[in-house]
Amino acid sequence: MSLDASQFVFLVTALVIVVSALFVVTARNLVHAALWLIATFAGMAVIFVLLNAGFLALVQVVVYIGAISILIIFAIMLTRRVMQDTGPQTNANWYWGAVVAVGVLVAALTMLQLPNALTLGASSLVPGFSSAPLPQPAEFADAAAFNTATLANLGLALSSPDHYLLPLLLVGALLAVAMVGSINIARDDKERE
Amino acid sequence: MDFFLNPLGFIREWLLSLLTSIGITGPAGDFALIVLGTVVVGGLGLTLPLALIYIERRLIGRFQDRIGPNRVGPEGIFQTVADAIKLLIKEDITPLGADKFIYNLAPIMAVVSVLTMWAILPFSYNVFGTDLNVGALYFVSVGSLGTLAIMLGGWASNNKYALLGAFRTVAQMVCYEVPMILAILVPVLLASSMSMNAISAAQDQVWFLFSAPVAAFIFFLTSVAETGRAPFDLLEAESEIVAGFNIEYSGMKFGMFFVGEFLHAFTVGALTATLFMGGWTGPFADQYPLLGMLYFSLKAFIAYFVVIWMRATFPRIRIDHMLELNWKFLVPLALGSIVVTMLVDKLYAEFLQALFVEGARAYVRGGLLLLGNLALAAGAMVIATRAARYMRLKEESDKYMPVVEAEHGHDDHGHDDHGHEPHGVVAAAH
């Protein structure tokens, strides 16, 4: 079996994601765990690129690496003793987590591989979970043209009342409420008067 | 293929034929060319600071009425080379208790985060690394890695001053990212594209500096804050936290932070040139790409000169002022700038565009946007002035009133009589 370039990149990236995800839960130092988490996020961004979703890949980097990871690291630095902080990685509920993780893995593998095992061909139980190769964008000259058209469609869908404008506005309102609430909790009692 | 019409294409053809002659063809040849291009752009980016540091030191010298480095080589042009050699041969110290891997990773990340921005800079209409359709977002996402690098460097050094510097960095860089992203949205709106090349091309007639001056101002200011240079250099305020996040770094690791900072400053100039000053556009630039490269470099250096000018002119901003400037002034102003741009541009396209001839449209649109921006700027200045006066009066009344009341009880002096006098004078007078 010969690999083409994108399959090779996928295998390497998948390996990086799995290994760094393992280190996230096994690292004894919390900052190290956060760094491994960043490696996982970066791997996910590469997967998005492989799927011709450049916009999602960059959003992944901006939101998860640029904002959420920094928030996590900042929280660790502010709340723990610097450098020396190591502790047990598990708490009393670890077996529930293990059950859920194994369940999700089995479910995903089932959805991906069951149709093949039952010789149903490449079709899948859930649309989008197919192991068939991605449909080639036939009407576009190349991947770049396809990406630009996808990006334009995404923008139109998010700003059209017929599609996702209302959910988008609701998410915005929810975030605004969350932000006002957190500021209200964080500020001093004195300032509230 | 003519070199003067398509320099990159010409070099590419030539190299491909060279590679074919030694037996490398197909995807392997393309891959080799991509690697080569990356190395060339990266090498250019890494050697550029040698010149930038010299230029900046000489300029700052002139600003401060002194000469600047002038000993090594003619007019001192080899000073930076000598400094770089000195940095290279210095002892490389890792502090006790430092987190070695992260400590060594941080300077590399700091340089990488800046260098990767060069991949999307369009030097001319057909001379660029890559023309991403999400270029504006790419540059934001890559820039956020710089924050991470400084934070990890500060944390891994096992030094409380380094950590304090890292905290300040996060407060500053994460905050100033918000108005910067909002300001980038305005050229993206005006050009209807996130590709850097398309944004440059859209400014062929009217620069976005004129049709979106407020956004240009915010972008420039916040980008300078992102680089952490004066007046936004509180992350390395010597008088308070010794040297900030890079206090424990020595030798070339410090040198990499240094190179990263200077390259970032120039990249800010290049990005300002691309987003707001037309990039490579100019007379005849669409026929001769090399001319476009010249225009681009000139504009980038003009913007970079303003960065240096700011550094030489303004004193360091206080940390609470830094945060208030961001959240209470720049963020609302950036949001207002987006709303004004959207409204003016849409109304113009709906009602006015048909009234004008083809050649005049870009200028009419630019003029209307300029008027909208000027109104916004005037409104913002009025509100900011009033808010500042209100805050000053409130602070003064908070400061003096209780003391005056406690010492004199209910005497007949209103606080208006001596509200502006220092308290000591008031006490002495009574």
The percent range for helix content of chain A is: over 70%
Strand order of the largest sheet of chain B: 1-2
Secondary structure: helix percent of chain B: over 70%
Number of DSSP E strands of chain B = 2
- Tell me the radius of gyration of chain B: 26 Å
Structural class of chain A: mainly alpha
Mean pLDDT of chain B, to the nearest integer, reads 82
- Low-pLDDT parts of chain B are 404-430
Q: Distance between termini of chain A?
A: 72 Å
Could you please describe the fold and organization of this structure?
The complex is a heterodimer of chains A (193) and B (430). Chain A has 193 residues and is mostly helical. Chain A is 70% helix and 0% strand. Chain B is mainly α. Chain B has two domains: 7-391, no CATH class; 399-429, no CATH class. Helices cover 71% and strands 1% of the residues of chain B. Chain B contains 16 helices and two strands. Chain B has helices at residues 7-21, 26-63, 79-89, 100-115, 135-156, 160-191, 196-201, 208-211, 213-227, 238-241, 251-276, 289-313, 319-352, 361-408, 415-418, 423-429; strands at residues 122-124, 127-128. Chain B has a two-stranded antiparallel ribbon. In chain B, helix 6 packs antiparallel against helix 9. Chain B is globular, with a radius of gyration of 26 Å. The N and C termini of chain B lie far apart (90 Å). The chains are: A mainly alpha (193), B mainly alpha (430). The interface between A and B is medium-sized, with 27 and 29 residues.
